[in-house]
Amino acid sequence: MRLEWAGGGYLLDVGGADVDLYTYERLAAAGLAAVRAGELAEAARLLEEARTMSTGPLGEGLEGPMLERERLYRQERFLADMEVRAELELELGRHRNAVPCLQYAVHKYPLRERFLWLLMLALHRSDRATRR
After folding, report:
1. Which residue of 31, 66, 117, 124 is most buried, as measured by CB atoms within 10 A?
2. For 45-64, what is each residue's pLDDT tens digit?
3. pTM of the prediction?
4. CA dist 60 to 84, 107, 109, 124, Å?
5. How would residue 65 be classed by pLDDT, with cut points 50, 70 and 90?
6. What confidence tier does 131 reach under pLDDT thresholds 50, 70, 90?
7. Class of the 2-125 domain?
8. Are 50 and 81 contacting, i.e. CB atoms less than 8 angstroms apart?
């Protein structure tokens, strides 16, 4: 690894080291490509593997306007990928598998309505719908 000055900032050259952000990007892109190819089970597996690579905010402990924009982009990308993953679980008939993940997502991101809709659908398909 090498840190060097590059124009208006620093550049960290990681060489051939594995970087979780790059691994996430590869897995998520492969998962979305699998969706387009109709390989739903493989897509769900790849997106789940990608999810495990996202362990916290990008550049935690660092500040700066460019980093904040990148954090926002990465979070939105992650949430969109996780919505696709939940949709895949439902498409594959694995409704009960989708419920815990969606309950967590609804709790953590209560304003993200798509997660709530998917949770209600997963609960209904799992025979856990609320009855009056």
Report:
1. 31
2. 999 999 998 877 777 888 88
3. 0.81
4. 26, 22, 19, 38
5. confident
6. low
7. mainly alpha
8. yes
Q: Where are the alpha helices (DSSP H) in the chain?
A: 20-36, 40-53, 65-91, 95-108, 113-125
Q: How many whole angstroms separate alpha carbon 116 and alpha carbon 110? A: 8
Domain extents for the chain?
2-125
Pairing status of strand 2-6 against strand 9-13 = antiparallel
Vertex 51: Cα angle to 56 and 54 (nearest 5) = 20
- Token pair for residue 129? 């719908």
Determine phi and psi for 56, rounding to 5 degrees: 175, 180
**Phi, psi (5° rounding) for residue 12?**
-100, 110
Query: Which residue type is seen at 23?
Result: T
- CA dist 91 and 4 (Å) reads 48
Q: Which of 29, 28, 34 is nearest to 47 (CA)?
A: 28
